[in-house]
Write a structure and sequence with these properties.
Elements (H helix, E strand, L loop, with lengths): L2 H6 L2 H17 L1 E2 L2 E2 L3 H12 L7 H55 L5 H11 L3 H10 L2 H32 L4 H12 L5 H9 L13 H16 L13 H16 L1 E2 L2 E2 L4 H24 L2 H8 L2 H24 L4 H11 L3 H11 L4 H26 L5
Antiparallel strand pairs: 1-2, 3-4
Helix pairs in contact: 2-3, 2-12, 3-12, 4-5, 4-10, 4-11, 4-12, 4-14, 4-15, 4-17, 5-7, 5-14, 6-17, 7-14, 7-16, 10-11, 11-17, 14-15, 15-16, 15-17
Organism: Haloterrigena gelatinilytica
Subcellular location: Cell membrane
Membrane topology: Multi-pass membrane protein
């Protein structure tokens, strides 16, 4: 094996090459618009297409580290955010997934009726990047249709990720949003962060309400991820719709929001300096998106050339319709501030990469509170609707 082959085969080199190149791309500006955090994702796609790869375990690890930081930062606002927008977030999860369900039915029956039905159906769970939705559909499908559904999901997943990330990066610039004013609206609408009782209790233990009393707790951070792993693995009984779980994203996020809000579990501190957490969040985010790109880039163009552009179009339509529906109801019907709306839209799209892009574009970690309020409900609707779609659409392979 030559030196070059050894280097290319080094997983750490590949990962951080994608991070370095991607962050460089993200800094480039065109008309005042930057890719920002989407840079490592696109760099990973290119490197993955060229044959470079990293172990699959990197995805779970970097995702858990990133989501834990997001949740711990957003924990201070979770109570006030849910109190202000709780029912709206539940409705948003239902609206966005319902729109995608209706769209997928139309594509299979009319717009792309000459294509393989399971292939187009796969764009439903793929475009909204829902692995539990994939599992629910595969469980309900006959054996002969499962393979094509999984292919449709895989292609749709990449399309959905790219669209929600680009939307979150570009919309504030295209809509000429005053992000400073949006943050002020968030503060006015949601109110002060955390309860006085929690702040007092934390301060008495040496931890200020904003986490400034403790710079960083390795034990607390590890506890959040460990508890999140347990929470994410708990099966949710849903009768004939199966027993989905929240997975890594949902489990770690809920654990981080809950434990971060409490501030302390016995002798273990779970509220930390937000400036430290923000740096951890930025670093792990770049790694996570690079891994996603490397994984998705392998064989993506070959799959499209083999199965046609119809699956790409179906996935793009599903993703864009869901995003548009979320944008209309949050901004124009409910008049939400953009910080809450951005989190809710990514939660309704069930996409952690979109959450990362939203945080990067707004510069507000509080986006995570809206995501956490919407994501669990959108996930449950995806699980149900994946089976409903199988029941509604006649299968033509």
């Amino acid at each position: 094996m030559t030196f070059v082959e050894t280097v290319i085969g080094n997983d750490l080199f590949v990962l951080f090459l994608a991070v370095v190149v991607g962050m460089g791309i993200g800094r480039l500006s065109a008309g005042g618009i930057k890719l920002g955090v989407a840079g490592p994702l696109f760099a990973g796609l290119v490197l993955g297409h060229l044959g470079l790869s990293v172990p699959g375990a990197y995805s779970t690890l970097t995702l858990a580290l990133f989501v834990a930081a997001v949740g711990l930062i957003a924990a201070q606002d979770i109570k006030s955010t849910i109190a202000t927008y709780g029912l709206h977030f539940i409705a948003l999860g239902a609206i966005m997934t319902t729109v995608a369900l209706g769209g997928t039915y139309v594509w299979t029956q009319y717009l792309f009726s000459d294509a393989s039905t399971p292939l187009i159906m796969g764009s439903f769970s793929g475009a909204l990047t829902s692995s539990p939705g994939l599992g629910s559909a595969v469980e309900a499908l006959p054996e002969a249709a499962r393979s094509e559904y999984q292919i449709g999901h895989s292609v749709g997943y990449v399309v959905g990720v790219l669209l929600i990330v680009m939307f979150q990066q570009l919309y504030p610039a295209v809509a000429d949003l005053d992000l400073g004013a949006e943050k002020e609206r968030f503060a006015d609408d949601v109110g002060s962060t955390g309860s006085d009782e929690t702040a007092d209790a934390s301060a008495s233990g040496g931890v200020e309400a904003d986490g400034s009393g403790v710079t960083f707790s390795v034990m607390g951070y590890a506890l959040v991820i460990a508890v999140g792993g347990i929470v994410g693995s708990i099966p949710i009984p849903m009768g004939s719709f199966g027993t989905p779980s929240l997975g890594t994203t949902g489990g770690v996020l809920i654990a981080a929001l809950g434990l971060g809000y409490l501030g302390r579990v016995g002798p273990v501190t779970t509220r930390m300096d937000t400036s430290i957490l923000s740096e951890i969040r930025a670093f792990t985010l770049a790694m996570f998106l690079a891994v996603v790109g490397l994984d998705a880039g392998a064989g993506f163009l070959e799959t499209i050339s083999q199965y046609g552009v119809q699956i790409v179009a179906a996935a793009a339509l599903n993703s864009l319709l869901a995003i548009a529906a979320g944008l209309v109801v949050t901004r124009f019907v409910w008049k939400m501030d953009w910080i809450s709306a951005a989190g809710g839209i990514t939660g309704g799209h069930t996409d952690t990469k979109g959450l990362a892009a939203a945080i990067d574009a707004t510069g507000a970690d509080e986006v995570g509170a809206g995501y956490g309020g919407t994501y669990p409900f959108a996930l449950l609707f995806m699980v149900i609707y994946a089976k409903v779609l199988v029941m509604l659409v006649p299968l033509v392979v």
